Amino acid sequence: MTTVQVTTPGGSYPIHIEANRLDRLGQVIPDDATAIALVSNVTVAAHYRERAETALAASGKRVIYIELPDGEAHKDWQTLNLIFDGLLQNRLDRKAVLVALGGGVIGDMVGFAAASYMRGIRFVQVPTTLLAQVDSSVGGKTAINHPLGKNMVGAFYQPIAVEIDTAVLSTLPDREISAGLAEVIKYGLIIDADFFAWCEQNVPALRALDRQAITYAIQRSCEIKAHVVSQDERESGLRAILNLGHTFGHAIESGLGYGIWLHGEAVGCGMVQAAELSALTHGLPADSVERVRTLVQAIGCPVQAPDLGQEHWLDLMQVDKKTEGGQLRFVLLSAIGQALCEGVPAQALQQVLEKTAAPARV
User: Which helix (H) or strand (E) holds 156?
Assistant: First the structure.
């Protein structure tokens, strides 16, 4: 087992990474827990509910199960209330523990529910997608979507543990693996050029879920995120660099409708757009832009953005948490491994949208 420690003002906790970690979930439940609420969705439950319930019951605590619909389209108030309904109907108190078994949507909603129920109860992240394992389960961001913007309603709230079972990735569709790898290569782009180069060299192994390669990719991603979050828990400065490609990506998700593109697919394409913008505004070399495009394509993510229309693009991007005083701010690259966050000239953004979001040419 590999352990990465996260230390923030909001709480310190371990990230445990190993195959079949699912069977040891009961080990992380605190002795004073009065009950456990396992929350998952219909798709994940078909594979892992029974194992998770058995492992949690080994802690000697009462376990209840709450099932949610699957998909980004259900990351809303109505679905969030299903969690509160289950907690209240079963009379769980402040010493109960929530367990999020699923991808980023489940993790975000269960975390937000934990932050809100009785003004805060403990929760454990058990991410079952690659994207959730390397990104959304770590760092304490919790949220639901609003029709006008992604993840605009939520809270910073840290889990008490993140339990990563690398073996569960074998049941994921290839598309989900590609989406997760987009977040993996993001870490190399923003802070670790050597890791980016390692990803370039190991694409076949990563896509095939080679045990050694995927375990290292998850570990290194978690180490980088833990390092950034420990310095800036609430995204007042450095943590913003974790959003490389996300301003473009969130606009794609909102513009097309949540769930049409996977989050990681939109972020992968958004990183290509951010690289193009970096070339115009910060002199990112053309060969570096091409390396980004080539790797995003190699992992199986789209590199051509949908044509949402310039005006609609701008409207969608204005609903972004990095916007300050009405000015759009983007995570940009001065070089591979070096990121910053700042505003850009409107003309440069327009050029990039014309280049990257035009209809595909035949």
Answer: strand 149-156
